[in-house]
Design goal:
ABC transporter transmembrane region fold, Rossmann fold, 608 residues, alpha/beta, elongated, single chain
């Protein structure tokens, strides 16, 4: 059982609009030319319809004035042409804005995913996968959906509103003043209601993240839940989280929809007032009947942009809340950062391992390791045993710098790991754990980590044969191109052997095996024993094991108890000394296998 993760730093403090705005600006910057071109088309597409009411008014005035049919037909054709051209341009703008939004959204997804992958394991242990999915996909989807509509439904309608007001002022300044006042009232209501709704949408997203995270964890442990009769508890958790999500969504929806109601009210007042002013002006012969018709049409044209702006406020609120949370995630600094030394700093061949006074605490007063001193010469194979929770897994993972010690120094090849670049360390050190992670991809993609470590097919096939999966490979319908559904379609032994194949392909100089054979049946364990012997030949190895039989060929043994190395020496010497802890562990293990003991007396030691 792996040791618990150390306490992780929380997410960075909540960030306000400015960090979110900077995040959006840096994400949009590479699309500067596309945005400029889109803006030009947008202005043209939104201003063309402004000619429609003017032409309609001219048509009415000319018809009342007795103009010939030819003139009226030309006006009608011009009206139709401007309307159709405007609609076509709007379709083009919509298509381009959707493409732009998805490019920007995918770029932000990649940035968030890359940053999350660089955060330390302790941070990931403190945050559920569901929360990360919501941050990387849910929040970015809200941004993408908003940006795909913002160009036409927000910016475009702002241009349209400004054009309508300008033309109304040209027709008559009093009518323009009425339209401007009603628009200002609607904008004021929407801005104030938006400020009230943003925190509500933020809480809605957080509630959804808790819901999805808890649901993912319950589904992941479905077998244990069923076996232990915890179904009622899981359903209760789902109901509680769903109720919280519903309450926060209801409040956010009410606040968001109030913006629509405010805009509709302001429009109704402005439309009635504009019509009244127009009638009065026409009766005083200040404007023509066609101008009154045009003003009324312009007042009607304001309705759609105001409504769409109100509709988009909800998406804007969600998008801004998502941008704030994305900026918060990006502001979280990883606890583990690479040093300045590259791979050339490490010597060639097997690597020495030195731990000088190493300690690691999960929380104050709870040391996982304390005062650990270990020194392994290049090519040494060390077996690590101890009770569950004694620090075995922690010791092994310190060598890969998954965590940093809170005291002392860990050196590999004579180099302090904190001075070494992470890529240089990963290139020379490999780990195989009891928890195998396989991708929903082909066999080839699983072995090469989706092509990150390209290897030719002959080498891949040879490695699979070497670890004992030759017959398995030959039986696959598409060979290396056969897709696998993670570990779902494989036995525990096959999945573990694939993990060993990855280690073979990495060709490391230091290998950490963390209870790597604990999931294997005897036949698979026998097959992998020979492959392990070849893998470790000429390399330094640290082998964490429950089964003492897997340590028959190691050079040295370290026994851990409560985070301390209580015994360390050559395996043969410790096994031959009946007073050593390791010899007592061997005796207890042999007795358990032969059925001489049924349970371990309290206070005695057993293999971790």
């Amino acid at each position: 059982m792996p040791d618990p993760a150390p306490a992780s730093p929380r997410l960075a403090p909540p960030t306000g609009p400015r960090p979110a705005t900077r995040l959006l600006a840096t994400t949009l910057w590479p699309e500067g030319r596309a945005i400029a071109g889109l803006g030009f088309l947008l202005v043209v597409a939104m201003l063309l319809p402004l000619a429609g009411p003017v032409l309609l008014g001219r048509f009415v005035d000319d018809a009342l004035g007795g103009e010939p049919l030819r003139v009226l037909t030309l006006i009608a054709v011009a009206y139709l042409a401007t309307t159709l051209t405007g609609e076509v341009l709007r379709l083009v703008v919509t298509w381009l804005s959707v493409r732009l939004a998805w490019r920007v959204g995918n770029r932000l997804r990649e940035r968030l995913a890359d940053h999350a992958l660089n955060l330390d394991l302790a941070w990931h242990g403190a945050h559920s996968p569901g929360l990360l999915i919501e941050r990387i996909d849910g929040d970015v989807e809200a941004l993408t959906r908003f940006f795909s509509d913002v160009v036409l439904h927000v910016l475009g309608n702002v241009v349209l509103v400004a054009g309508v007001l300008a033309v109304a002022v040209v027709i008559d300044w009093r009518a323009g003043l009425v339209l401007g006042g009603s628009s200002l009232l609607a904008a004021t209501l929407m801005v104030r209601l938006r400020m009230l709704a943003v925190p509500a949408h933020d809480r809605e997203r957080e509630a959804n993240a808790r819901l999805y995270g808890d649901l993912e964890e319950r589904l992941g442990g479905l077998e244990d839940i069923r076996a232990n009769g915890a179904g009622a508890y899981a359903v209760h958790r789902l109901q509680a989280n769903s109720a919280d999500a519903w309450r926060t969504a209801r409040r956010a929806s009410l606040l968001g929809d109030s913006a629509y109601a405010g805009a509709a009210t302001a429009f109704a007042v402005g439309s009635v007032a504009t019509l009244a002013v127009g009638i009065v002006l026409q009766q005083r012969d200040v404007v023509t009947l066609g101008a009154v018709l045009a003003l009324f049409r312009y007042s009607q044209m304001l309705r759609q942009p105001l409504e769409r702006i109100a509709e988009q406020l909800k998406e804007f609120q969600k998008a801004m809340a998502g941008a704030v949370r994305a900026a918060r995630l990006l502001a979280t600094e990883p606890a583990i950062t690479g040093g300045h030394l590259g791979p050339e700093a490490l010597p060639a061949g097997a690597l020495a391992v030195d731990l000088d006074g190493v300690g690691l605490s999960y929380a104050p007063g709870r040391p996982a390791l304390a005062g650990v001193d270990l020194h392994l010469a290049p090519g040494t194979h060390l077996g690590v045993v101890g009770r569950t929770g004694s620090g075995k897994t922690t010791l092994g993972r310190l060598l890969l710098r998954f965590w940093d010690p809170t005291a002392g120094t860990v050196r590999v090849g004579g180099v302090d790991l904190r001075d070494l670049r992470l890529d240089a360390l990963r290139r020379r050190v490999a780990v195989v754990t009891q928890d195998v992670e396989l991708l929903r991809a082909t066999v080839r993609e699983n072995l090469t980590i989706l092509g990150a470590h390209p290897v030719d097919d002959d080498r891949l096939a040879a490695v699979l044969v070497e670890v004992g999966l030759g017959r398995w490979l030959a039986a696959l319908p598409q060979g290396l191109d056969t897709p696998i559904e993670g570990t779902g379609g494989l036995s525990a032994g096959e999945a573990q052997l694939l993990a060993f194949a990855r280690a073979f392909l990495a060709d490391p100089d230091l290998v950490v095996l963390d209870e790597a054979s604990s999931r294997l049946d005897p036949l698979s364990e026998a097959r992998i024993a020979a492959a392990t012997h070849r893998l470790l030949a000429g390399r330094t190895a640290v082998i964490v094991a429950h089964r003492l039989s897997t340590l028959d060929e190691v050079d040295e043994i370290a026994v851990l108890d409560a985070g301390r190395v209580v015994e360390h020496g050559r395996r043969d010497d410790l096994a031959a000394d009946p007073r050593s802890r390791f010899a007592r562990l061997l005796a207890a293990s042999n007795a358990a296998h032969t059925g001489l003991i049924e349970d371990e007396p309290a206070g005695t030691e057993a293999a971790g």
